[in-house]
Specification:
With 444 residues, the protein is an alpha/beta fold. The chain contains 15 helices and 15 strands.
Length: 444
């Protein structure tokens, strides 16, 4: 097929996700290696967001590809009721790298499914049904996970396309505090409000949150927040579910974001970087205390591809690559370098409101006015298909060979952990130039 045919068939006969279908003209990608991908014309793009913040090891990692090939030749599929060597090997490895205390695993094929399982397990285990999530969160697209999503992707499925029983708390966002407080004088009001909710709602089974919020702005909590939330959960007999789909696997400079605060969740969910996205794998990990409950109670969950051998093998290889190449340590080093480069360009751009990040996980937030923090666009603009300033900037960056994710009013910078300083220099230089588009629309 010609490139034109590939694009035409894709746009006409397959759905483009989270978008209006009219005028969708997807770029035809034919190859990728390291920190770059290539379109059908031969043009290369620096992948400054690891596709969907998931290709942690970069493209064409030979160890991961080899693991997939070998597993396909050895045992391509086994029903989840059977034991396999690859299932046992990955389980042993997970015990080494996951936060201590997480010792029982359910394997699925996405972060969405991992969160579905977590919510279902929490309800079965506790006998309670309410789930507290936070605004400015994303947990997936199926019934339970979209119900727990705080951002506007939830709006279109209400009321019938999601489960009942999810209630929303204020997020922890010190740049735009939802309670109009200032840190540290706030005394963690956003966390204390969650305790107020628990005591007044009753029947709360669990709190689900991204320890470092991903798509919705790389929101990093103060050091007191996660330990306080852990204590609130313990004091009120509520489970803490950590959604590390995006923030896990070295992205923040630790194996998992919760490791920064030495907090042990009751349930941890993850996906994306667990295989560097080479094959789809989701993980729901629980404590053995939760697991023991199901020794004498029916575990009412499962699906055909649970513990699929082909999805497990690349996870083993990816974890070993993170270890052997010291990529988690590299995320810290390269993250510090990225931070310096971004901070250096900030004074030049009145459109930059805040730069925030941890490890190789950064957001740059755009504003019309740095004093008032007014954004160029709203969540309503996003779902209504109105032009977004971040899209204008990222479109210009694509013309210059850099791919970067934008969401409503900020950019998500999450390159592969193998990125070099020279590649960061190149990407930030192009970003610097393209920000003039936003600067010209600033209100003084």
């Amino acid at each position: 097929m010609t490139p034109e045919e590939v694009v035409s068939i894709t746009a006409k006969h397959t759905y483009g996700t989270w978008r209006f279908q009219k005028n969708w003209n997807p770029l035809y990608i034919v190859d990728a290696e390291g920190c770059y991908f290539t379109d059908s014309s031969g043009k290369k793009y620096l992948d400054f967001s690891s596709q969907l913040m998931c290709v942690t090891l970069g493209h064409k990692n030979h160890a991961v590809i080899k693991a997939i090939e070998e597993q396909a030749n050895k045992l391509a599929y086994a029903a989840p009721g059977f034991a396999t060597e690859v299932r046992a090997e990955l389980s042993k490895l997970l015990l080494e790298v996951l936060p201590k205390g997480l010792e029982k695993f359910y394997f699925s094929t996405s972060g969405t499914e991992a969160n579905e399982a977590a919510i279902k397990i929490a309800r079965m285990y506790t006998g309670k049904y309410k789930i507290i999530s936070r605004y400015n969160s994303y947990h997936g697209s199926t019934a339970a996970s979209i119900a727990a999503t705080g951002d506007p992707r939830r709006w279109a499925v209400e009321p019938s396309g999601k489960i009942d029983g999810v209630i929303f708390a204020p997020e922890c966002n010190c740049y735009r505090c939802p309670l109009n407080h200032s840190y540290p004088e706030c005394n963690m009001a956003c966390a204390n409000y969650i305790e107020h909710m628990i005591k007044n709602e009753s029947n709360v089974a669990a709190i689900i949150l991204e320890p470092v919020v991903g798509t919705n702005g790389i929101l990093i909590p103060p050091k007191e927040y996660m330990p306080l939330l852990r204590k609130i959960c313990d004091d009120n007999n509520v489970l803490l579910i950590a959604d590390e789909v995006m923030s896990g696997w070295g992205r923040t400079g630790k194996w998992f974001a919760v490791d920064h605060w030495n907090v042990q969740p009751d349930i941890l969910t993850t996906a994306k970087g667990i295989t560097s996205a080479y094959l789809p794998l989701g993980l729901t990990a629980t404590t053995m205390k939760i697991a023991d409950y199901f020794n004498d109670h029916y575990f009412a969950h499962g699906h055909t591809y649970e513990a699929h051998p082909l999805t497990l093998a690349p996870a083993i290889a990816a974890i070993n690559e993170l270890k052997n190449k010291k990529l988690i340590e590299r995320a810290v080093e390269m993250g510090e370098y990225l931070n310096k480069k971004l901070v250096a360009i900030k004074p030049k751009h009145p459109s930059i409101g805040e730069i925030r990040g941890i490890g190789l996980f950064y957001a740059v937030e755009l504003v019309k006015n740095q004093i008032t923090k007014e954004s160029f666009n709203t969540k309503e603009d996003k779902v209504n298909g109105k032009p977004l300033m971040v899209d204008k900037v990222t479109s210009e960056m694509m013309k210059r060979g850099v791919y970067m994710q934008g969401w409503v009013s900020h950019f998500v910078i999450a390159p592969p952990l193998v990125i070099t300083k020279e590649q960061i220099d190149s990407a930030v230089e192009i970003f610097d130039a393209c920000l003039s588009i936003a600067d010209e629309a600033v209100i003084n």
